[in-house]
Amino acid sequence: MARSSKKGPYIYDRLLKKIAGKGPKEAGKIKVWKRAATITPEMVGYTFLVHNGKSFIEVVPTEEMVGHRLGEFAPTTKFVRHGGKMQKELEQRKRQAEIEAAKAAKAASGK
Q: Is the pTM of this model over 0.70?
């Protein structure tokens, strides 16, 4: 559910104080634990290190990100690929195709 419109967006005041009066290069990388903080137009171009529960993930807000939350761009779960026999066979075929392509390119450049 979205935040009530009468309350307005959740903007973390300390975060705005850290970037106030400084350029993106002067401010450096700013560590943030408040994943629910809304990205404002003033934050565009700065580099934030958003905590995902284990480590910090670098997020550089752009114009398209304004209005979204910082936590949306720092995933908290890591995708572990699906495995099995079929996946192994597909990967082997892909590697073999890359090797053949490299050999063909080498033979073409050798002539």
A: no
Q: Which residue has the tokens 């934030």?
A: 48
Taking only the tens place, the pLDDT of each residue in 77-90 is 987 777 778 888 88
Question: Using alpha carbons only, how large is the chain's radius of gyration in Å?
Answer: 22
Those residues whose C-beta lies under 8 Å from the C-beta of residue 75, and which sit 6 or more positions away, are 52, 57
In whole angstroms, give the CA distance from residue 48 to residue 35: 11
* Helix ranges, the chain (H): 13-19, 24-27, 85-110
Distance CA 46, CA 12 (A): 15
Q: Which CATH superfamily is domain 13-73 in?
A: Ribosomal protein S19/S15 (3.30.860.10)
CA proximity to 9, closest of 46, 37, 49, 41: 37
CA atoms within 13 A of residue 37's CA, in its CB half-sphere: 23
